[in-house]
Amino acid sequence: MRFHYLMQRGDEGLAPLVYVPGSLGGADDFRDEMSRLAPRTTVAISPRGVGASSAPEHGYALQDRVRDLEAVLDQLQLAPACVMAFSAGVPIALSYALQRPNRVTALILLDYPAVSRQLTDGWAEQAKPFAASRGIPEHVIRAMISESTTVELWEDIERITCPVLLIVGGQSPFVTEEDLGRYRKAWPRLQLEVFEDSGHEVFRPDYERFMQVIERFLREIG
């Protein structure tokens, strides 16, 4: 396997930040944020099947994704890092934090519940135009559907003790009030931001607000 990532090396006195994108997102999506967060060391990863990363026929289940993230970070030999995840990247980041707690100093979760969801043919039909525009092979979409299962992490995440920032969109259907209640129950000290005018892409329509919240949280954790 070959994985594509972007890395911006910076101040070793600051906790590194690692970005895990959503289902079809890649490292290049995080370029602007990497520049903004300098001089902090930042890493953005393209998952298998996306961008310049390998696109094998199989290996798209949740645990495969977690092992991929672990492999890249072990290769880079980063100090314990803050892991930031968007959308379907959230259960990957949570699973990694559960399996490698000593490698995670904090979590930033963007608009997704603590669940890895089984993908459907309906999702595939919506995803295909976007995937085609990014050169993602059709066999990757098929494998993502056939290998996906629903994995609930709600009971497990109570074991995560690091600081957590959760940002959700007030107009997004992805995180329900019930989900927010479960997050609060798991983490009484959870830092929660609800952007009432945002949908799933919480960095829109107010990118500056989004980045200021991220930067404030990173300053707090060092």
Report the strand count: 9
**SS field, number of helical segments:** 7
Please name the CATH architecture.
3-Layer(aba) Sandwich
Which parts are unreliable, with pLDDT below 50 for 5 consecutive residues or more? none
What structural class results from the helix and strand content?
Answer: alpha/beta
Whole-angstrom Rg = 16 Å
Largest sheet, strands/sense/barrel: 7 strands, mixed
Number of domain units: 1
What is the spatial order of strands in the main beta sheet? 1-3-2-4-5-8-9
Quaternary structure: single chain
CATH superfamily: Alpha/Beta hydrolase fold, catalytic domain
Strand content: 15-25%
Average predicted confidence as pLDDT: 96
Distance between the termini: 33 Å
- Overall morphology: globular
Q: Secondary-structure element sequence?
A: EEHEHEHEEHHEEHEH
Helix content: 25-40%
Write a compact overview of the structure shown:
The protein is of the alpha/beta class and 222 residues long. Helix content is 36%, strand content 18%.
